[in-house]
Automatic annotation (TrEMBL):
PROSITE patterns cross-referenced by the UniProt entry: PROKAR_LIPOPROTEIN
Pfam families listed in its UniProt record: DUF5666 (PF18914)
Protein's recorded name: DUF5666 domain-containing protein
Alphabetical UniProt keywords: Signal
Top-level taxonomic group: Bacteria
Stored InterPro entries: DUF5666 (IPR043724)
Residues covered by the DUF5666 domain: 102-169, 324-393, 407-474
Secretion signal span: 1-27
This protein's record includes keyword Cytoplasm: no
């Protein structure tokens, strides 16, 4: 069963719940109250949130897959956290980052928004964040920036048929460390081999947790060579791993898969959620992003009995392009808006949100002058050739960098005057402007010899009237 997927990591959560059991829940929020949550990080890189509230990580024990973690807590990451709700912030005692899958991309379909990693299908939508670490900082990518052979780490909601990703990080090629989960088949205990998603797993030298058994769900970490995985750790998710105490109140937040309206269950971040006795607000469908409050079953720590399930964002679709800039025009009745010369339309499935405080908004909350990040599908247009906006996020900050940043397709390229148009603005450059592509610096002449109309660029600089004086121009994708 898919509910077994996160068995060992849920042990970590359940044991921690007992530590906080003595804290009293106070709905008024007048005094700190215990928080136990499995969810997806929101906000920004420098101001991460959970359950829509900023995180106080000072003194927090940070781990990733059970090991100490000193990296950033980024939007899209799946975490299990414990602490107290201080009213305006969540002060955390511990936070663990959870990874579902890591390995090379074997297949990629940008139009469908899917990729295949180690025999598992990974689905993406408007809420999927894709990153790459360059130097000491992270930059965002689109699915089209990835390629077959890239090594990626995937976090999200998993079922036996696939993973709906909330976080994908591209790692340097040549990294042969892998993580994957699934059903163990063709088990050969004397040889210490089994098959997993078409790969042969050798667990002869691995740290083994649980009892090897044909057909059980397993979690594997190791190194990949061809179709052989030399395991360093294997967790067999058998009933013998179940050492849980009494149930505790927990909050879940993230995308759902495996919805079963007859049984009134769905999968969410490693739990099977039973919503048969829950107050459901909104329409449940696979891919919807929900908040769920309830209790973990006293005897089965992978079963969650929901009391309240609220749809936070609707089921959304993969994004194929991205633009950043200031809203120059908006028609709330017509559900359209513009970033300079680039027009968009929204519908009931468009994800509308803000980053601070993190949470959903109505289209009428977006105003002219707002700085927004738009993920869109250039293959879907209305009668006026406006693009379909898959997601619109109002950015209240850029982590201290101000609002002088734009992203979109290049037009009216002039390699003689070293100018081009972006979102209807004229972008001017000088020899002092920094030019970059694929982490490499370019001279102005070499960069403009490379640049083509239609290329996606990110520009940082200063706007005066309809002219952007660029301090940095980065070619994205290609």
């Amino acid at each position: 069963m898919a509910k077994e997927v996160r068995f060992s990591r849920l042990v970590w959560l359940a044991l921690g719940l007992a530590i906080l059991a003595s804290c009293q829940m106070n709905p008024s929020g007048s005094t700190p109250q215990a928080v136990q949550v499995a969810g997806v990080v929101g906000g920004t890189e420098t101001k991460p949130t959970l359950l829509g509230k900023p995180l106080d990580l000072q003194g927090t024990s940070l781990t990733k897959e059970g090991k100490p973690y000193g990296g950033s807590v980024l939007p899209g990451m799946v975490v299990v956290a414990q602490g107290t709700d201080q009213g305006n912030t969540l002060r955390l005692q511990s936070l663990e980052v959870q990874v579902e899958l890591k390995g090379p991309i074997a297949a990629l379909d940008v139009n469908a928004g899917t990729l295949t990693v180690l025999g598992q299908q990974v689905l993406t939508d408007a809420n999927t964040r894709i990153y790459e670490k360059v130097g000491g900082s992270y930059r965002t990518l689109l699915l089209s920036d990835l390629a077959i052979g890239d090594v990626v780490e995937v976090q999200g909601t998993a079922t036996e048929t696939g993973i709906l990703a909330t976080y994908i990080e591209r790692h340097p090629r040549g990294n042969n460390e892998v993580e994957l989960e699934g059903r163990a088949t063709n088990l050969d205990e004397p040889a210490k081999h089994f098959t997993l998603n078409g790969y042969t797993v050798d667990y002869g030298q691995a740290h083994v947790v649980g009892t090897p058994r044909e057909g059980v769900w397993v979690e594997v970490k190791g190194t990949l060579s061809g179709t052989l995985i030399q395991a360093t750790k294997v967790v067999f998710k058998t009933s013998g791993n179940n050492q849980f105490g009494a149930s505790r109140r927990v909050e879940l937040e993230g995308p759902i898969l495996g919805l079963d309206p007859t049984q009134k269950t769905f999968q969410l971040l490693g739990y099977t959620v039973d919503y048969s006795a829950a107050n459901v607000v909104g329409t449940l469908v696979d891919g919807a992003y929900v908040e769920a409050k309830g209790q973990v079953d006293a005897n089965d720590p992978t079963l969650f009995h929901a009391q309240l399930v609220k749809v936070k964002y609707p089921k959304s679709y993969p994004a194929k392009a991205e633009a950043k800039g200031t809203v120059s025009a908006i028609d709330h009745q017509g559900n359209t808006f513009s970033l300079g010369s680039l027009g968009f339309y929204v519908d009931a499935t468009t994800v509308l949100k803000r980053d601070d405080p993190d949470g959903p908004i109505a289209f009428t909350d977006i105003q002219v002058g707002d700085y927004v990040e738009v993920q869109y599908d250039p293959t879907r247009t209305d009668a006026d050739m406006r693009y379909y906006a898959v997601k619109v996020e109002v950015k209240t900050s850029q982590d201290g960098e101000g609002m002088e940043e734009w992203e979109g397709p290049v037009s009216h390229l002039d390699a003689t005057s070293y100018t081009f148009q972006l979102l209807g603005y004229t972008v001017t450059t000088t020899e002092a402007t920094r030019f970059e592509w694929r982490d490499q610096a370019y001279s102005r002449a070499d960069f403009f010899a490379l640049l083509q109309n239609g290329d996606r660029v990110e520009v940082k600089g200063t706007l005066s009237g309809t002219t952007i004086a660029a301090e940095k121009v980065e070619l994205k994708g290609r």
